[in-house]
Amino acid sequence: MDQKAIKRIAWVVNAVILLLVFGLMWFFHICEVTFMVWFSIPTALIYIAGFVMIRKDMLDAYVRMVYMWLTFYMACSTVCLGYDYGFHLYCFSMIPVIFTTDYMAYRLKHKRVHAKAISYAIEAVYLLCTGYHALFGPVYQRDQQISAVFWICNALIVFGFLIYYISYLIRSIIQTEEQLVEIAHIDQLTRLYNRHYMLTCLDELPPDSAEGFLAIADIDNFKKINDTYGHNAGDAVLKTVAQIIKDECSDCVVARWGGEEFLVLSRGDFIDGKEMLDSMRTKIAEMPVVFDDVSIPVTLTIGLTVKHPGQSIDAWIHEADSKLYIGKNSGKNCVVI
Q1: In a domain, 319, yes or no
Q2: Do 31 and 66 lie in a common domain?
Q3: How far is residue 109's CA from residue 100's CA, in Å, rounded to a whole number?
């Protein structure tokens, strides 16, 4: 979520709260809760000032002001009318909201809002105002039917806040975890799996497994491509070849093994795999990579091997690598088994 989105949300929330203040002001007038009628005037001015603060990108100061005044407003409402109206319930929604706000400030690299300290302050105010009610009762005694309606409305609003902000936090955590997994497992240039992920997949194979095949593919004369056409062209070649391998070997685990090398792991049939890789090699050779209106011929040499029972992963990779170099020394652009 970017700065503009945060400002839009703040603008909408501020407008909704301001409308609620006017609505509650009318309600307090009808119920003859005089103190809260007058208290609603500076409250409305606070939120009108909030629009100016949002427009001027003073979001940090705006958040602190809103939390301070909401807590103060909640305390005064509870002292005046008691907790039969449910105003004190907002304390429970404000705490996850302030922690979410602190998290958003961290993500946007803004000044942190000290969520824990503010939560303790909200807790203290809650205990004071509800304690006053327990000892002395509300300042204004009003119709119990009205209080029941307000309790329900306030409870619904509070639960709405809790559900929304907690679900937002969980979604954000999941999104962050997915991004971390992608960073750990995906090569950023080719969007293939990286060496670390491939080694994990290989380690998870049963030790006595002899299924499938392993292939190492290497772009021929890649240094010459970089020297002749530039490193940006080399990157374009890597991305194009990676995409073709990924498309052609859709049932395999494909990783960028290092530099211009790719590792292909499959549990499929060896003969079918050989035909698939040979077809892929031919496709790459017949389709030059176009970069800056220049056609760059590209070929691929591949070493292909099956896993023997009891063979270690290192030995299996070494065998595929050895066959790759046989292909490199035999004219390139071939699949060696």
Answers
A1: yes
A2: yes
A3: 14
Q: Domain end: 184, 212, 228, which one?
A: 184
This prediction has a pTM of: 0.64
Tell me phi and psi for residue 111, to 5 degrees: -65, 130
> Into how many domains does the chain fold?
2
Higher pLDDT, 4 or 56: 56
Q: Annotate 267-282 with DSSP letters as a single string.
A: -S-HHHHHHHHHHHHH
Q: What integer pLDDT is reported at residue 64 of this predicted model?
A: 80
The model's pLDDT over 90-139, given as tens digits with 9 standing for 90+, comes to 888 888 888 877 877 777 777 777 888 888 988 999 999 989 888 988 88
Token pair 């859709």: residue: 250
Tell me the three state secondary structure of residue 31.
coil
Query: Do 307 and 233 sit in the same domain of this protein?
Result: yes
C-alpha triplet 220, 225, 229: angle, nearest 5°: 165
Residue found under tokens 């606070």: 46
Please write the tens of the pLDDT for every residue from 135-150: 988 888 877 778 888 8
CB 63 within 8 A of CB 101: yes
Last residue of a domain, one of 130, 154, 184: 184
Identity (one letter) of the amino acid at 245? I
Cα atoms in the Cβ-side hemisphere of radius 13 Å centred on 108? 20
Residue 278 resides in a domain: yes
Q: Is 333 within 8 Å of 300 (Cβ atoms)?
A: yes
Q: Give the structural domain span for 285.
A: 195-336
Q: Is residue 189 one of the residues assigned to a domain?
A: no
Q: Please tell me whether residues 177 and 55 are part of one structural domain.
A: yes
Alpha helices by DSSP H, listed for 137-230, are: 144-185, 195-203, 222-229
Q: Give the separation between CA 87 and CA 194, rounded to whole angstroms.
A: 54
Q: Is 63 left (phi over 0), alpha (psi -120 to 50) or beta?
A: alpha
